[in-house]
Amino acid sequence: MSRIVGRPVPRVEGHAKVTGAAEFTADVHVPGALHGVMVLSTVARGRITRLETRQAERSAGVAAVMTHRNMPRLTVPEPHLLVKRFLPLQDTEIHHSGQPVALVLAETLEQAQHAATLVRVSYDTQPVRTVFEDAMDDAWIPPPEEEPGETPVPNELTRGDPEGALARADLRVDVTYTTPIHHHNPIEPSATTAVWRGRKVTVYDASQGVTAAQESIAQALDLPVGHVRVISRYLGGGFGCKTPWPHTVLTAAAAREVDRPVKLVLSRSDSYSLHGHRSQAHQRLRLGARRDGTLTAIDHVTTQQVSRTEDEFLPSASVPTRRLYACDNLSLAQRAVRLDLPTPAWMRSPEVMPAHGLECALDELAYAADMDPIELRLRNHTATDPETGEPFPSKHLKECYRRGATAFGWSERNPRPGSMRDGRIRIGWGMATAAHSAGGMPGAAARVTLSTEGTAQVQVATQDIGTGTYTVMSQMAAHVLGLPLDDVDFVLGDTNLPYASLSASSATVPAVGSAVNRTCTKARQKLIGLAVADPRSPLHDLPADGITAEEGTLYQTSRPERRDSIRAVLTRHGRPLDVATEAPEESGEQYSTGAVFAEVRVDPLLGQVRVTRMLGAFDPGRVLNRRTIRSQVIGGFIWAVGFTLTEHTLLDTRYGRFVNRNLSGYLIPVNADIPDIQALFIDQPDPTSQALGARGFGETPMCGMTAAIANAVHHATGRRIRDLPLTQDKLIASAS
Amino acid sequence: MSDNDEAPIGGHSRRAVLKTGGFAATLVATGGVLGTAVGEGAGAAPPAPATEVTLDVNGRTHRLTVETRVTLLETVRERLGLTGTKKGCDRGECGACTVLVDGRRVKSCLTLAVMEDGREITTVEGLARGEELHPVQEAFIRRDAFQCGFCTPGQIMSAVACIDEGHTGSDDEIREWMSGNLCRCSCYPNIVDAVRDAARERA
Q1: Domain named 2Fe-2S ferredoxin-type: which ranges (chain B) (predicted)?
Q2: B14-84+106-125 maps to which CATH number?
Q3: Angle CA(B52)–CA(B56)–CA(B61) in degrees, nearest 5?
Q4: Would you call A110 and B90 a contact, using CB atoms and an 8 Å cutoff?
Q5: How is chain B split into domains, by residue range?
Q6: Residues A459-472: pLDDT tens digits?
């Protein structure tokens, strides 16, 4: 096998992306398509009493104004497809502010935008509950979520005797951490274009799950799944908000009603209430430990917002508390409170909320124990998975601490808060463990076609959300088939291709990577079979297991000069070689870890925090592509900067309305906020991985880095601010 | 697509839309029921004013009749089919729509096509010379300065201008002058590397 895997090859779709040739959903030109603009509710709870659309309908260029009156009745897709439990434009009920009440369709976008301002709506409103803190007394523990292909995880768990252990502990930490609402804000807004031909529909959708979108549309419109084709070849980020949401289904339904293609691109502002958010959350952590830092008890209670319309959906699971450290006595509760707000969503690194609490609380424990925070984590390291009692198949976290600390220069740190200064600027160094689960989603299928020219096309209905799926899957296929990278074409983003599930839960490598490896291995075996069976091949009659495939050539492993080209084998065969494999029910669940370090500089007069250094050492299993994996680290770290320092969605609690529905009020980090970033990798294959030793990894780096930054701010200032984001006002207030 | 393919279409000017939108938003903020006073009878309003403009886009001259409310962004995407320029926010915050107007970087969502009559526009499609990529495009690939690629055309146009402006004296200067272009995949350090590389190549 050739050594294509691991090489930092540039992205195979790079040329298309830098020239503007890459066609994203809103770029697809469909002649005659109407442009859609949503009209959203201005109240959070109640009923529509009057809906006046006449003026809008008469406005120039308007083809139709779709409302609950003229939309067909639709079926709400199953919860594992659509987390939101109702579809808008079906009745007069209003469940949250920013819920669609009309969809204006016109010949041009400007006409639709104008006509949308002419729609008049009156409501009969009901009192709303929108303040998270007010609802805390009614928090409850939902039953576990049941999803096909996934193991249900209980929302309540007790191991040992946590209360007794807490009472007996030498050291105790009892802290509450709070985090605000966040919005995904991919730079590509969600977009859908639906084109009907007879009873069949093609839907171009900015989707991080084309098969899930396909099933959602089929269920909602009562169509056979085969009548719906969903295409998403280039996806402008998703971060959890481009799983199926109602606007996709509504676009397809509206296009059928008006008998014209319809294109709907959500405005930035609309996107804040149409495809979820990271819930506001509250968490209380009680840690008990011996004087030497050994954890004897953890009690972790998280509470997160849900809406009134869904029951068993808690996007942020306390996996780090359950799996990351050895602790015999543990209790864990994941609670929910219902507010009159939109349904939440998964958002990049869903485990980051509980991870932030745990990793900050451990820093607090390190100070209580007068111990180095790395030493504390080493003391509580576990080689066995506390969930199962089985050893982790491959865990190099200790090595991550060591290599990360050395590269960062951690030994130079004076642990006393406020002790490191540069003039009036306080310098802080913080660290944390990074960890996130990966996979555990439905498995993927794949098809490989080797042409008579000796090239391969590999097909999977997955997506490239920006992580590098096109590139690393091409590398894996080339590696396993023994072809040069240029001779492999990886095709994705189309439901006509073999099944894959969502690009989510760091599952693409475990699910799609396994499918590519499995299918290409089978294709290589068939190819070798053809060669050794062919009297015209120099490899004729050799044992198949003694043949190696590399860089377009098959050769006898023990005598490499005895060889045949893959192209020649296939040309003589005279027809393409086609191999497909089915999707297993589940892709394996994995756990990728690392150690992360941050340096901040804090101006105590202004309360301003600048992150000046970020470094991580990680164990992602085998590294498939050093370039794209480094970009995952950079991305996760920068998301951590946003999470910790700048991002929060503000709510007008009177109307349950998000206020800063834009990118000037909702502050995602910009280039000037970000310093140099260093990423180190252990690069040891995980023997249990079906994807050439690689594990899912994309969500690991953000987890931990939020706490490393917050811990660095504490180290710089001596202030422990437990309410995110750490904005200037809070730092100034804490200093006075 | 021909260069002069559409008749003026009825409707309101963009300014009028913004005004009504603003007024509606004020009413909305009171939480009350929206009255019918705003835009009453607007359906019978005169057609949106349109005018003829000449735009030189990527070296090709286009004579178009456009409604005065239509942005440069919508014009290049919808009328000229140049979809490399992206719409991320439509209010000048994200920079995905950055193009060059007479060599200056401009957010095309904040510019009406009529305001650019007679000017030279360069979009991402106009950078490469045939098969040969622009050094900034090469550097973006080499440095993995994008992930999803959606903000990339805007980043690249901004980078070309940033180098022309001479704002590449240090990494900090690059960071500052590239901060009008958001990247949610968060490739910023790689973007700085790419801009530094391309600037050196030019020097």
Answers
A1: 51-127
A2: 3.10.20.30
A3: 75
A4: no
A5: 14-84+106-125, 135-202
A6: 999 999 999 999 99
Instruction: Verify whether the Cβ–Cβ distance B34 to A630 is below 8 Å.
Output: no
Q: H/E element holding A111?
A: helix A109-116
Task: Using pLDDT thresholds of 50, 70 and 90, give the confidence band for residue A588.
Answer: confident
Residue A188 and residue B176: Cβ atoms within 8 Å?
no
Q: How many residues does chain B have?
A: 203
Query: Which chain B residue has its CA at the smallest distance from A20's CA?
Result: B84
Sort B164 into a burial class: Cβ within 10 Å, 0-12 / 13-18 / 19+.
Answer: middle
Q: How many residues does chain A have?
A: 736
Q: How far is A460 from chain B (nearest CA, A)?
A: 18
Cβ atoms of B125 and A162 within 8 Å: the answer is no
- Judging contacts by C-beta atoms under 8 Å, the chain B residues touching residue A465 are 148
Give SS3 for B75: helix
ipTM: 0.97
Q: Where are the alpha helices (DSSP H) in B97-187?
A: 135-142, 152-165, 171-177
* Domain annotation for chain A: domains and CATH numbers: 389-440+590-735 (3.30.365.10), 441-581 (3.30.365.10)
CATH architecture of B135-202: Orthogonal Bundle (1.10)
Note whether A26 contacts B: Cβ–Cβ < 8 A.
yes
State the amino acid at position A42 in one-letter form.
T
Contacts of B132 in chain A (CB under 8 A): none
Give, as one character, the DSSP assignment of residue B76: I
Question: Which of B140, B188, B193 should we substitute to test contact with A (largest number of A Cβ atoms within 10 Å)?
Answer: B188
Report chain A's C-alpha Rg in angstroms.
27
Query: Is A699 a known active-site residue?
Result: yes
Using the beta-carbon criterion (under 8 Å), do A19 and B39 form an inter-chain contact?
no
What is d(CA A582, CA A664) in angstroms, rounded to the nearest whole number? 47
Residue B47: pLDDT band with limits 50, 70, 90: confident
Test mutation, B147, B156, B160, B191, chain A, max A CBs within 10 A: B147
User: For the segment A120-172, what is each residue's pLDDT rounded down to a tens digit?
Assistant: 999 999 999 999 999 999 999 998 877 665 667 789 999 999 999 999 999 99
C-alpha–C-alpha distance, residues A83 and A315, integer Å? 10
Q: Do domains B14-84+106-125 and B135-202 have the same CATH topology?
A: no
Question: Given the DSSP bridges, would you call strands A651-652 and A34-40 parallel, antiparallel or unpaired?
Answer: unpaired
Q: ∠ at Cα A149 (A145, A150), nearest 5°?
A: 40
